[in-house]
Structures are given as C-alpha cells and as structure tokens.
Design goal:
Blueprint lengths: L6 E4 L2 E4 L2 H17 L3 E5 L9 E7 L4 E3 L13 E7 L2 E5 L14 E3 L5 E3 L2 H16 L12 E4 L7 E3 L6 E6 L16 E12 L10 E3 L5 E3 L2 H18 L6 E6 L5 E12 L4 E8 L2 E7 L4 E13 L1
Antiparallel strand pairs: 1-2, 3-7, 4-6, 5-19, 8-9, 10-13, 11-13, 12-13, 14-15, 16-20, 17-20, 18-19
C-alpha cells in the first residue's frame, strides 16, 4: 500500500501536508463523486434490474350461497394470499474514461530518499480514491456518503434528496374494516396501505481543502488550480466506483440478505396471521350467504434491505 503525503505551499515554502489536510482531500473526493455519481439508482415503473421484492396480504375467501341454509364454515373458501412483486430499482453504471496518468498529473511528494516526485495512479488510489470509496460504502448516511442512496418511509428526508415520488415498495394488509357481513358477498381483495418506502440520494457538502503542488512540464513545482484538481478527482473517483478491478467498485442490491452495508430504513412485508373470520348473511328465504374474511394480528413475513457494497 502506497499512501503518500502530498506537498503544499506554506507561505512560499514547500511543506508536507498534515494528515488532516490529506483527509480534507478525501472528503473533497467524496463531494466530487456526489455531483455526478457513476453508479446511479433510479425508480422505474417495473422491470428494474435489482432483485424483486414481494408484498403479501390476505384476501377474503370466495363467498358461498345456498337457497336453504347458511353454507357451513367447513365448506366456505379460506382466505388466500395476494402477492404483489416490486422491481422498481434500476442500477446504471457509467462508462468513464478519465485523464490518462502521464506521470506528472498528480501531486508531488518526498520520497524516502528526500527526492520530489509525482504520485502514481496507484499512490492516488491508496491515498485518496480508496479511502473515499470506503466512506461512500459505509452504513452511515452523512455527507461522507454523498451521492449514494438510502431508504426512508417519507418523500422528505433531512440531508437527502428524494429520487422519485413513486415508492419503491408499498407494504399493504387486508383492510378488515372494509369487510362486513352486510356487504356479502364482499370483494375478495380490499387492501389498505401500511407503509410506503422511497429512494433518496444523500446530499453532499463542498468542504474546503488545500491545493497540493504538482510537477509541471518545466519540472517546477506548481500549485494546482482548484478546478483542475477537482476535475481530476471527479474523473478518477467516478471511474473507480464504476470500473475498479481491485475491490473498490460500488454496487447495490436489495433483498433479505447479501453482502455489504444496509442503508436506511428496513423494508418490512407484513400480513395478518388469522385463519379466517366466518360470517353469514340472511338475504331472504331463498338466499343464505357465507364468507370468510381476513383476520388476525399483523406479522412480519420478510424484511428487505437496500445494501451498498464494494467489489
């Protein structure tokens, strides 16, 4: 591992940066990523390329009728399960062609022999890019994870921007208050929304940093223009997140298990656990009706999480 200490201008003198100043550049790298993430999630109506997750709920059993007596509970249909699949998350990975490392585009540093030379792209990865990816893929949801994603149960989330007004998942259950004996034969599926879940992108913060020196074409030390250095960081962190071959590529998944860190609110699929509420209705001497309605207490069927991983 080749972590380097860049050189800076200290009132006209050449001086090594402090560890805090190097960390500030890592934070700036994160911010540059947040301005244009190369691994992006969006919300689509259906057919997204992340895993499918399912919402389950009970619906009433089919109603029974008789011209002479109420159909018995043993002969009426039991409540059944309705399953709605959600595949609304689409992951898009950009193709990035960053500025080629010519040997002099990156910050200068002192070698162990006291010579001044430019950092290689390997040095830059170890000093700035990989630490930035480690921050981006952590389980936290602060500005140090800017440009990555989290889940919330509201369209508004402090420190983040809602990606879409369309929820990525809706947990529903049978609305027991909608089923009445006087309404028999009732519509089988009468759901109510319990919780909706939304995708948010974490907002960034443009923190200050010290521009390091680089070696210019005349072999002199020159301080970067901020925009130039920021552009290099942006290109290379986006390339690393999208295309790393040494374990620092960012990917997302959603499901009940998987590698990586969970993000935001867990997505819970709940369903009533009853075996059926048998009800009857007398209409007239030739019309006896019976039906089993959903009942029971809410129980958790599955818990899904959005996960961010580096690979």
């Amino acid at each position: 591992m080749a972590v380097r200490t860049p050189l800076k201008n200290d009132s006209g003198n050449v001086k090594q940066m402090t560890s805090a100043e190097v960390t500030d550049i890592v934070y700036q790298t994160v911010y540059q990523y947040s301005l244009n993430p190369s691994v992006a999630l969006s919300v689509v109506g259906s057919g997204g390329n992340l895993d499918t997750i399912s919402d389950t709920r009970l619906q009433a059993g089919a109603g029974s009728t008789s011209a002479s007596a109420f159909p018995s509970e043993a002969t009426t249909a039991e409540p059944s399960t309705v399953t709605v699949n959600y595949d609304r998350l689409e992951q898009t990975i950009a193709s990035i062609s960053p500025t080629t490392d010519t040997g002099k585009i990156w910050p200068a540093y002192y070698t162990s022999a006291g010579h001044i030379q430019a950092m290689t792209i390997t040095d830059v990865r170890d000093t700035f890019l990989h630490p930035a990816i480690d921050l981006l893929v952590s389980g936290s949801t602060t500005t140090q994870q800017a440009g990555t994603y989290t889940i919330a149960t509201s369209t508004s989330l402090a420190g983040a921007t809602n990606v879409s007004g369309t929820p990525i998942y809706v947990d529903t259950r049978a609305d027991t208050s909608a089923y009445t004996s006087g309404g028999m034969i009732e519509t089988l599926d009468q759901p109510t929304t319990i919780t909706s879940y939304y995708l948010h992108s974490i907002d960034g913060s443009n923190t200050s940093f010290v521009n390091p020196f680089f070696i210019n074409s005349s072999n002199h030390l020159q301080e970067y223009v901020s925009a130039t250095f920021q552009s290099l960081l942006s290109e290379w962190i986006r390339h690393t997140a999208a295309s790393s071959t040494d374990g620092y590529k960012i990917t997302y998944s959603i499901g009940t298990s998987g590698s990586g860190n969970t993000r935001g609110t867990a997505i819970v699929d709940t369903k009533l656990n009853g075996s059926g509420n048998y009800q009857t209705r007398f209409v007239d001497a030739n019309d006896y009706r019976a039906q089993e309605f959903p009942d029971g207490s809410p129980t958790t069927i599955n818990t899904y999480n959005l996960r961010i991983n580096k690979s």
